[in-house]
Amino acid sequence: MPELDFSIDLHCHPQYKPFGRAHTDSSKPPAPQSTSASARSSLWYYDPPSLGDKLLNYFLSVTKFSQTNLTASLYGRHMVLTVGLGATEQAFFKNKLGTGLIADLIDDFAAGFGRPRINAIQGLTDYWTDFQNEMKFMREGENNPVRIDGEWYVYKMPANFSELQQCIASNEEKDAGTKKRPVIICLICAVEGLHILNCGLEKPCKPAEVKKNAAELKKMANRPWFATFSHHFYNELCGHARSLRKEIGKLTDQEKGINSGFTDLGLEVVDILLDNTNNNRILIDIKHMSPLARKKYFELLAGKYKNESIPIIISHGVCNGLPDMNATASRYPELGNTFINPLDDVKGGDGKFKDHNVINFYDDEILAMVRSGGIIGIQLDERRLANEETIKRVKHSLFRNKIMHYRSELVWRQIQYIAELLDDNNLYAWGNIAIGSDYDGLVDPLNAFWTTEEYDNLSSYLERHAYNYFKDNPTRLKNPINRISADLVVQKIFRDNAWNFFKTWY
Prior knowledge:
single chain; alpha/beta; TIM Barrel; seven-stranded mixed beta sheet
């Protein structure tokens, strides 16, 4: 491991808002990424939340500010980011508000993309081309040095672990931060949602085109390391888990294909991505898949791919507190019951009462992930970390340090749950957990931990929770190997586990 102290995020979106702002005319391709860090179409554009922004987020769950721009990231020593690329799905902006001016302004207010980008998404007929434009936008800013607070910085997109290692090593040189040797933030390319293959639009997809695009994805410069198979809406490849609720859930319609399994075309795409003939496998991230699709994928790994080493990736997720997809009660109710949401009293597209638990992960899936050598990035979205009743019961305070303590405990409970689940199954508890914030991905961030700039604070408060846990419960973890120091727990979660996962699989 490098000696430099930094953190890693397995899933975030520093590009969504800048790429949106690069669209100045919905009928034309986006402008190049700005070379100025002060421009809104730059990944470096610094946009910390104002008091008004924080109040909007607190009361309406609207996130207008930039959570994971690269300037905020460097302030939080957040130096390696896996970037979830992928065309924003059309159904977000073709919703019950319609597609007129007022609807665009409201959508823009919620997403921060700008009206031209929203209009462009509403008019999309080709997700694949939009994805190519997004990738081009990312390449345009690579190696462009920017000066921030008197020092020089640059972002690079290393293609493998060796290149990643070289970038981080460069940051340890004495002259790092000079124009000759800018400090490097590393962006690792991933894909969120295989609708980018040009499926899931209003007209049925062309299977041959989808498979051709999947093959082309594997040949790309900056080939994505892994891909979530589905996202928020049906993509004709596999079913998705319900992910939207409250205001945005009422405005959008996720019901088509909800909680369904793989299609025949989807299974063909799985084989294309996992084929490693040319050493160019794209791993599969199971976030957003329906439980049925996840079950089928596990069966493929245990059957068709049993002789190959393929890790299960949950780039941004948390536990739902339930043993498996057929269970209705937690085996570990002390924490599990704080995660489980009651079913809605309305039925969804699958004919069942709407279930907001299935976007999160069952105990048996967490165990399968660990046994495969996989990893889970803990998502820093309040709406995912606990159920509504638990969120309402979080203590309030006027003092920022107390707010941080109370809110960070929501994250700690998820970490504790995973550790105790693994320990109860005689597995090492601390080797497969990382951070996958999903910041700038329409998430509701933890109050007081608004952006990646607060990562140092979050790690400090989690270390406090870990210290208290081990002090108050010295033998709660039955396996001695799992009783480690609080600072080591946090170091593993914020850096070491992800770094070792990169070393093994990237």
